[in-house]
């Protein structure tokens, strides 16, 4: 048994010609690592240097959750609750904008008001996530969202953006919508899943 870390190697000398060899990494493909091998088995030949190479790759990505409140009656001081679900165990640090930094794990609730967001870091590539906002339709809010379900990649940051719009008509029948509100006023309901039952994002 030989232990090696990044950049380390050993050279075994004096092996008889014709000796068959096999090198196996015991922790291959564990803890989120993807293991690629080259030359891990073969036969010793005269005048030929044999080399067994092992490359362990582990990539991490981020997930941002962003909140926007719009409409002539949208309360921009109101906090909205979100449940964040991952299909893998782990606790992840996040950086807050408008909220304190902290850590989060699957099934936790985060509270965000208008223009606040968090960026969750250190999520293993390939992790499937789902962000679900609690239902505020009884309070007159229409919720639209993008990126609420996805798969973490180290190449592209994942962003779940939720907009809650609340417009109330005046006595004259006009809603007097917020002129700065560019969000389509179209209801959309996030599919309901039990915590831990994150769907495949390819479906």
Structure description:
The protein is an all-beta fold and 203 residues long. Helix content is 0%, strand content 39%. The protein is built from no helices and 14 strands. The strands form 4 sheets. Strands 8-7-10-5-14-12 form a 6-stranded mixed sheet, with no helix packed on it. A 4-stranded antiparallel sheet has the order 9-6-11-13, with no helix packed on it. The chain has a two-stranded antiparallel ribbon with strand order 1-3. It is rod-shaped. The chain starts with 19 loop residues before the first strand and ends in a 38-residue tail after the last strand.
Overall morphology: rod-shaped
Order of helices and strands: EEEEEEEEEEEEEE
Total beta strands: 14
How would you classify the quaternary structure? single chain
Strand arrangement in the largest pleated sheet: 8-7-10-5-14-12
State Rg.
26 Å
Query: Which residue ranges are poorly predicted, with pLDDT under 50 across at least 5 consecutive positions?
Result: 182-197
Largest sheet: 6 strands, mixed
Q: How many helical stretches?
A: 0
Mean pLDDT score, rounded? 87
Which secondary-structure class do the elements indicate?
mainly beta
């Amino acid at each position: 048994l030989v232990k090696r870390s990044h950049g380390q190697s050993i050279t075994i000398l004096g092996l008889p010609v014709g000796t068959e060899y096999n090198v196996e990494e015991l922790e291959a493909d564990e803890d989120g690592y993807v293991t690629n091998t080259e030359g891990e088995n073969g036969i010793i030949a005269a005048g030929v240097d044999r080399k067994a190479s092992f490359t362990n790759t582990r990539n991490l990505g981020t997930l941002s959750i962003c909140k926007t409140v719009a409409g002539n009656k949208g309360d921009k001081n109101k906090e909205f609750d979100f449940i964040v679900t991952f299909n893998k165990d782990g606790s992840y640090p996040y950086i807050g904008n408008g909220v304190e930094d902290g850590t989060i794990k699957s099934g936790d609730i985060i509270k965000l008001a208008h223009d606040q967001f968090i960026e969750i870091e250190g999520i293993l590539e390939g992790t499937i996530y789902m962000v679900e906002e609690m239902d505020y339709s009884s309070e007159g809010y229409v919720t639209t969202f993008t990126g609420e379900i996805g798969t973490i990649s180290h190449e592209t940051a994942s962003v779940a953006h939720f907009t809650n719009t609340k417009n109330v008509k005046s006595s004259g029948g006009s809603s007097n919508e917020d002129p700065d509100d560019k969000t389509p006023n179209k209801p959309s309901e996030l599919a309901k899943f039990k915590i831990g039952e994150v769907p495949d994002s390819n479906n």
